[in-house]
């Protein structure tokens, strides 16, 4: 691929453009708000000048409701040899394109499974897609050349291609992305009018569960509006679990021992099913779920502490597989959790202790 056109230079479009431009592709940037394309160009994602002929690949990265009309315009204008979109929902845009009478042989619906809580070109990063699944939804009418260009884009962005049917994709993302967003928002919404004294007690659990509740509501309204049925189906299952759990908790308040035992069984059931589901979440780079051992260390909230602890772990010859920091409310210190291969945990803890760190575990 030598030339590309990104239409919609927000978070996703500009991130893809940065990755392509960084690997030598000439990228043209277009947005219905020219200021967004200018900002993306200023960040080194390409040029906001229009191409003077058809580019190799056009990447449409606009909100789902505008995908079909934008693609239809681009295809009719002959802007590229091949076209793809990156919208979070795949079935609806394809059906809209069909209804518009568009020639779909040069089009492929795709979806990179990577995002951030922020929107717009300033939030874009070149390595956003590294190691993440990028779904491709070819059909029998998709030209091989288009599929090959899409695979080249995915490779240039260092993502991992996954081929799926469009409607199966929409059901899958309802389960793993769209419903979790709503549940996170609902948990966070409990905090809105909560007492300050309660909010001060927030720990890592609620931070983990509500991280994505900070996302842009307009973007999620667009996504949920394009996938309402599958999300409602998953949420109805969650609602059934909620009803059961409320009943089980009320039973725990009962004076009747049998009722209390039933309540315990109900709560245990949902917690154990949660363990089973969590164990299925893939590990880093899509690998099988990994079980790491965690070494917990007290660190000061001051410049250079993280660099120092990582350098000391390097001295122990230990690869840190994952890391989390738990900040203590109102204190200039926190706990860092270093996740490592179980066989490396003891050596890491010993080296860190020798070098003066307060190792908790
Ligand atoms: N944000 C995320 O986490 C992810 C989003 N996506 C999908 O990527 C697409 C873009 O999302 P973001 O980059 O997050 O949104 P964004 O809000 O950061 O950027 C969207 C851009 O599209 C432009 N735009 C809107 N309508 C347009 C039109 N008709 N013609 C040309 N430009 C237009 C806007 O001015 C804006 O610059 C959406 O379809 C979204 O579903 C896919 C994966 C992850
Ligand atoms: O939901 C996730 O897993 C994310 O990492 C964020 C995200 C949001 C929207 C998408 O279309 C894809 C990914």
UniProtKB/TrEMBL annotation:
Species assigned in the record: Streptomyces ehimensis
The ACT domain, residue ranges: 294-361
Record-annotated Prephenate/arogenate dehydrogenase domain positions: 2-282
Protein name: Prephenate dehydrogenase
InterPro entries in the cross-refs: 6-PGluconate_DH-like_C_sf, ACT-like_dom_sf, ACT_dom, NAD(P)-bd_dom_sf, PDH_C, PDH_N, Preph/Arog_dehydrog, Prephen_DH
Keyword DNA-binding: no
Enzyme Commission no: 1.3.1.12
Entry GO MF terms: prephenate dehydrogenase (NAD+) activity
Pathway participation: Amino-acid biosynthesis; L-tyrosine biosynthesis; (4-hydroxyphenyl)pyruvate from prephenate (NAD(+) route): step 1/1
Xref: PROSITE patterns: ACT (PS51671), PDH_ADH (PS51176)
């Amino acid at each position: 691929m030598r030339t590309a056109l990104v239409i919609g230079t927000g978070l996703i479009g500009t991130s893809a453009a940065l990755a392509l431009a960084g690997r030598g592709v000439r990228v043209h940037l277009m947005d219905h708000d020219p200021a967004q394309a200018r900002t993306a160009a200023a960040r080194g994602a390409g040029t906001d000048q229009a191409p003077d002929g058809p580019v190799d690949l056009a990447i449409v990265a606009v909100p789902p409701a505008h995908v079909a009309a934008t693609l239809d315009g681009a295809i009719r204008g002959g802007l590229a040899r091949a076209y793809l979109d990156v919208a979070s929902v795949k079935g609806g845009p394809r059906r809209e394109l069909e209804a518009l009478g568009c020639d779909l042989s040069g089009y492929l619906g795709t979806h990179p499974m990577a995002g951030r809580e922020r929107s717009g070109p300033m939030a874009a990063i070149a390595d956003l897609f590294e190691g993440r699944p990028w779904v491709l939804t070819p059909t029998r009418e998709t030209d091989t050349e288009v599929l090959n260009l899409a695979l080249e884009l995915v490779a240039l962005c260092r993502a991992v291609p996954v081929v799926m049917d469009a409607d199966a994709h929409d059901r899958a993302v309802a389960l793993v992305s769209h419903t979790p967003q709503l549940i996170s928002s609902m948990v966070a919404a409990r905090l809105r009018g909560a007492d300050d004294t309660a909010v001060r007690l927030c720990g890592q659990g609620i931070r983990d569960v509500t991280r994505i509740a900070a996302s842009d509501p307009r973007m999620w309204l667009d996504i949920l509006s394009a996938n309402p049925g599958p999300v409602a189906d998953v949420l109805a299952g969650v609602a059934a679990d909620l009803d059961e759990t409320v009943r089980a908790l009320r039973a725990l308040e009962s004076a009747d021992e049998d009722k209390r035992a039933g309540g315990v069984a109900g709560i245990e059931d949902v917690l154990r099913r949660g363990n089973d589901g969590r164990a299925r979440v893939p590990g880093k780079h899509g690998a099988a779920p990994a079980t790491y051992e965690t070494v917990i260390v007290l660190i000061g909230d001051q410049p250079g502490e993280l660099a120092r602890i990582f350098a000391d772990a390097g001295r122990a010859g230990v690869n840190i597989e994952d890391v989390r920091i738990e900040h203590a409310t109102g204190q200039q210190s926190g706990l860092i959790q270093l996740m490592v291969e179980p066989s490396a945990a003891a050596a890491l803890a010993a080296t860190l202790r020798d070098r003066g760190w307060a190792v908790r575990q």
